[in-house]
Specification:
A hairpin with an 8-residue loop joins strand 9 and strand 10. It is built from twelve helices and twelve strands. Helix 2 crosses helix 3 and helix 2 crosses helix 5. It is of the alpha/beta class.
Amino acid sequence: MRERRSGMAIEGVRPFFAPLAEHVSPRPDLQGAPPRVPTGVPDFDYLTGGIPAGSLVLLAGEAGAGHQEFALTSAVHLMLHYDDPDLHRFYLGSARGPFVYPEGVAYVSMSRSRDQVLDEMRGAFTGSYPEVFVRHLSFYDLSPTYFRDTVVPSSWASLPGPILSGNRPNGGSGEGPLRALADALDTSGPNNLLVVDSLTDLLVRQGIEANDVLTMLKGLRRRAKSWGGVVYLLLSQGVAPPAVEHAIADSVDGVLEFRWTTSPNYSHRQRSMLIPKFMPVLSRIPAEYHGRFVIRINASNGLVTTQYERV
């Protein structure tokens, strides 16, 4: 049984599509459908009823546009289901489910250490966000394998501890980054929210062919269906050739795309999120909402949607 904890600050964020409701009935259009997992982003979950358990989701974005923040916000808000159910229901708003929940968070990093990721999160978010994240985290640092046989000095990539950090047995592979990634995912996959940071690292690494990455994604898409959680794949757009990016999108269940946008009505740029592909999600969204979400990211509430725009 998980210990219940509370104390995260709330900064007046409410879903804009529907008001907060303490008791809401399940969506009739989801009755009898495969189990769905909420993302923790209120308006997305309200419109879609969450995403199917076992989904492989590509979070693709321009630098700083919000794809990493989406993954971190989703992880924290889902774990609040265990730590602070009242606050979790607040972030769900009127999203009705029914929902199933991952048991924990597994973060698989190709090139960054656990301290790097956590220090960045502590610098970006305040309150209990980092603590909730760490409390449920199993971290897989594959950087020794990733940097092996590269120009990076071994002292830069070496770690004082094991490759695998968390409550699971030590793991790793001497057969290259793709094999190490597959082993980490197989170990951590069942009943968890997985974050893979990142496909970008794999695509720019010398000695790794894009075709091998695509083949692995197709296998992962099949494998993830038996795990019952959700897998988020981070990808920085514009690094791989367009044909490779299109092939990656074709190899996953869903794609969420994050961009910086400008408008004559604003003196500053803003972040937006689109859903170019996700059959079980797009089919649930009314046609008039097939556009883009305008998003913002703040230290107290993570990533939230602030309005909706037709495109």
